Amino acid sequence: MTEATSIDHVQTLLGDTGYVCGRALATVVFLALKLGRPLFLEGEAGTGKTEIAKALAQALGRRLIRLQCYEGLDASSAVYEWNFPAQMVAIRTAEAAGGADRAALRTELFSEEFLVERPLLEAMRPQPGGAPVLLIDEIDRTDEPFEAFLLEALSDFQVTIPELGTIHAPEPPIVVLTSNRTREVHDALKRRCLYHWVDYPTFERETQILAARAPEASETLSREVVAFVQRLRTEDIFKKPGVAETIDWAKCLLALDVIDLSPEVISDTLGAILKYQDDIQKLHGSEARRILDEARAQLA
Ligand SMILES: Nc1ncnc2c1ncn2[C@@H]1O[C@H](COP(=O)(O)OP(=O)(O)OP(=O)(O)O)[C@@H](O)[C@H]1O
Ligand SMILES: [Mg+2]
């Protein structure tokens, strides 16, 4: 188990896992750890929000517990469920054994043995390496009732199971929430958290990320790829490529033994950076050349 002792230390710890972390992000991560507050990360798709939680868990030597949010997610999928099939088997077995004590059977059926722990409950259990990192990913996909429920769970880090009683986290988990902002998350929940907007990285940072994630790429190719993607983000397109796409694209180019970019190569590999046919159509032909020329001019 590792403790982060300063903002610089957070940067180094995350850097050692391959996560390139700017000063602003490192500061908010450090404060979240120091004050024990949940970290709320919002930003465009593919900018490294989910990865922060993974990198943090790895850097601090903690277990990562992930709650992937989706529409219709409810408490039974997020906190706990009773193992109904196993309970049925236990009832049948008791019946076959002939007239078991009903009260004893009831107590047995609602004991830990038949409890199925879901991420939120798991995150409240003590872990060997210290409190886990709890990643609540893409919270904007859930609905408001679940958000309200989460607000309560995050405020006192305890879960009440009627049949078992209240389970309290001996040490609160390190909570990271992410949102792609497909809707606004309620103020009450945001107020509990430290907030950070994860933006597209600068040219320098994105080349550092590429060096960490696709180290096989030559410096020339990396710089061209990043300059092109950065330029592309300023264009009027429907879905701008994230850092994930930059990395994917570099890997595709490496697989094709590309040494430097050309309009033809770009056209052939656009599917790695653009995921909408309208955007791809726009970039075919002279547009790719224009953007490449502009990107190269910026590099020079
Ligand atoms: N700062 C960074 N340092 C290292 N790798 C990064 C960084 N930012 C993004 N990446 C890489 O980019 C990819 C996408 O990151 P991630 O999945 O965390 O994005 P996200 O913001 O959660 O996207 P989505 O909104 O689509 O879920 C990952 O493979 C991650 O390793
Ligand atoms: Mg994500």
Automatic annotation (TrEMBL):
One of its GO terms (molecular function) is ATP hydrolysis activity. InterPro entries: AAA+_ATPase (IPR003593), ATPase_dyneun-rel_AAA (IPR011704), CbbQ/NirQ/NorQ/GpvN (IPR050764), P-loop_NTPase (IPR027417). Gene3D superfamilies: P-loop containing nucleotide triphosphate hydrolases (3.40.50.300). Residues 35-213 form the AAA+ ATPase domain. Coiled coil: none annotated. Signal peptide: none annotated. It comes from the Bacteria. This is ATPase.
